[in-house]
Amino acid sequence: MKLCNATLPDLPAAIARPTYDRAALTPGIVHIGLGNFHRAHQSWYLHRLMQEGGAQDWAILGAGVRAYDAAMRDRLLAQDCLTTLIELDPSGRSAEVVGSMIGYIPIAEGNGPLIAQMADPAIRIVALTVTEGGYYIDPATKGFDAAHPDIVHDAANPATPRTAFGAMVAALRLRRDAGAGPFTGLSCDNIQGNGAVLRQTVVSLARLSDPELADWIVETCTFPNSMVDCIVPATGPKELALAQEMGVEDNCPVTHENFRHWVIEDDFCAGRPDWDRAGAIFSDRVHDFEVMKIRILNGGHQVIADVGEVLGIETISGCMEDARVRALFNKVEREEILPHVQPVPGYTPDDYVTLIDRRFSNPAIVDTTRRVAFDGSSRHPGFVLPSVRDGLAKGTPVSGLAFVSAAWARYCTGLREDGSGVEPNDPFWADLVPVAEAAKARPAAWLEMRQIYGDLADRPAFADPFAKWLRLMHEDGMVASLDAYLNG
């Protein structure tokens, strides 16, 4: 059954579907970055509210700012912006169609349609999932990267910006001038303090072209921090076939695990949906939730993904089926990451590691090691190195975390142990490969990428085990290296 509004009543009975009148929905949110994660997470929470008869004026309009976003727009519009979510669990699977998104803004050079839509007073939240590396952060200073060519362009051409943030600034200028009031900027990316990072990017960009507008944004707009959590694999032929097998022809279905978590600061300048009625948590302890999730889950992904890629293990659950890799995960997590994580309501750090072990081990979730290993140049400094710095400050072990960095350096040589090549898997892959090659003979070359590692090349407690592990990986292989670490 081809998915669209007209066929919803005819879908197989086992597939849940919207019970609300989608034609009666009106938009309240623009979401930039319509990837799988958003459609399985934030969109689902809103859908759940709508199923209860609420949030009818908070429907989502999708948006993108790059030419390649047009393909996703076409696919979603062809099925009335409906998405089939397929929950995969070892005990079984289920499906539901989510209808909280009602349109997708046209993609155009200069982002005119997006700016006009965000300037509409009906839009009260602009949310984003643009990846950890998408916020124009200077890797050396961790501040705003005003020298990036995209930012230079937007500062010089504020009415026809290239970036999502330039579009937000342009829309806020129109709203201020029209007396339409501000909107809330809601980052849903895996960045600690993601709301503060979004505020920094938007305000700093505005200040380059209109300092008075920047002041107005600071005074009136809000940017709540949030923590998001759900494992959502990429969609490929297998997922398309699974949807067909369940009785629906969906051109962009989404598979996901049987777990969701969303913790948000309650700081919305223009109102918000009652997401807590659908299971989200409004809390003033978002930072603690963020640290637990980013260090243990996202950091844990990096602990095993590069090792798995070097060994030719294709999935995260496959990594956890390997006794050595699973032991690496648990040893590094419990000895070197947990000491720096505080308990939060509902979880101790030890409980959370046990939960993540189980979630990573779910064989029904076909989450590739390649996807998880992507963009190590953003993910290692964001997810792994904060634990290293805490360990050095507190005198706790960091040898396992050094092993993780060594595995990344080994991976970036572009060759697995079975001789197969690694296709480029980082925005800076061309820069990383020659450094990884140089590090074979001189491991310190890798840590001297100070835009990533800062002063860690000068910290023997980390640099010495890093050099030991990287040499061992190149000389004796990954399995021998794992045995040496696990038995050491």
Automatic annotation (TrEMBL):
Any single GO molecular-function term of the entry would be: oxidoreductase activity, acting on the CH-OH group of donors, NAD or NADP as acceptor
InterPro entries linked to this entry: 6-PGluconate_DH-like_C_sf, 6PGD_dom2, Mannitol_DH, Mannitol_DH/Oxidoreductase, Mannitol_DH_C, Mannitol_DH_N, NAD(P)-bd_dom_sf
Extract the PANTHER family matched here.
MANNITOL DEHYDROGENASE 2-RELATED, MANNITOL DEHYDROGENASE DSF1-RELATED
> In this protein, which residues make up the domain named Mannitol dehydrogenase N-terminal?
28-276
Give all residue intervals belonging to the Mannitol dehydrogenase C-terminal domain.
286-468
Gene3D superfamilies in UniProt: N-(1-d-carboxylethyl)-l-norvaline Dehydrogenase, domain 2, NAD(P)-binding Rossmann-like Domain
* UniProt keyword Oxidoreductase present: yes
Keywords, A to Z, come to:
Oxidoreductase
Q: What is the official name of this protein in its record?
A: Mannitol 2-dehydrogenase
| Keyword DNA damage in annotation | no
